[in-house]
UniProtKB/TrEMBL annotation:
Protein name according to UniProt: Cobalt-precorrin 5A acetaldehyde-lyase
Sequence ranges assigned to domain CobE/GbiG C-terminal in this UniProt record: 239-353
Residues in Cobalamin biosynthesis central region domain copies: 143-186
SUPFAM superfamilies documented for this protein: CbiG N-terminal domain-like, CobE/GbiG C-terminal domain-like
Pfam family, one: CbiG_C
Keyword Chloroplast among record annotations: no
Keywords for this protein: Lyase
PANTHER family: COBALT-PRECORRIN-5A HYDROLASE
Gene Ontology biological process terms in this record: cobalamin biosynthetic process
Segments forming domain Cobalamin synthesis G N-terminal: 57-137
Amino acid sequence: MNTVSERSVSLFSLTPGGQQIARRLRQALSALSMHCYCAEKYLQAGFLPFDGNLKQTVAQRFHCDHALIFIGACGIAVRMIAPLLKDKFTDPGVLVIDEQGQFVISLLSGHIGGANELARQVADSLGAQPVISTATDVNQTCAFDLLAQQLNAASEQLHAATKTVNQLLVSGHTVGLYIDPWLEATLGFDIRQFDIRGLTLVTEHDVARYALSALIDVSMQVMRPDWPIPSFQLIPRRLVAGIGCRKNVSSVQLLTLFQQQLQRLNIHPLAVAAIGSIDLKCDEPALQHLAQQYQVPFKLFSAAELSSCSAQFPQSEFVQQTVGVGCVSQPAAWLLSDGCLLGETLRQQGITLTYGVMKSCYMS
């Protein structure tokens, strides 16, 4: 899960009093990448002038930053962002702080946008009161979208599931939470380290016995049980792939083999988190195309990095002479997954493909 310290923030100070709050925040939250803006007539060291005016500057930063902070009235902030709003899954977090620094209001995108988390951090630094109004927070329950973010999980029904599950939780209905035993056995997966307030942990056999209104099914697998109630799958992005290939291998061939191997392993395509190879393949079109198709990072390793763990895998003299290490796909997958490989290495059509599974939500 992304933390606030990793996010870029634009802060808009509308008065000299607001600038005092801005300076306090910039000093207290130095880990944040914070840009402070103000009117040109109030310009001083550490501040940037509005680019044209406040409205134009907000419009420019709205799609660039993870969060916007206004020091001033809520009404002004609402009027500035209103024409820019799209949805809770893509809009940045927006906070409003009063000029006296007494209240920090989470105005927009409290969950996925991170505004609630940021509001608490900002309020703590100012000695202020965070104002959180999202229904799940007020009712002391978790939220489907926030749980997805914490797990770094995807969902084919994210919008519908978030609306349905969150409404059920705040209305007092019982929502079950099922964890695929494969995740627990393979990765030591522990759901209790995440926010699951209000959810009822169940086994596959429990589902029919509980009076559940819906079920959250956490699994990386495609084939799922035929649940007797509405279910929404959360797919942790934990699958990584180490790939070696000949020069100018067909993008279609690589994509086809990749998909076929996923099907053999019964792994959902949305579980893919990254692909990796040797740095000599940085410009290989088929690998770049694959990463783009799955919208995942393309991680590159030097021959020396791959050699650090390659001895445990079958070696090829040709590969050794060509790239400086005796194998590529297995050590790349090993490094990406911290040594948790999945299935056998596929060798076909000038391609070697090895899957691994990360034990943590995010790559180290």
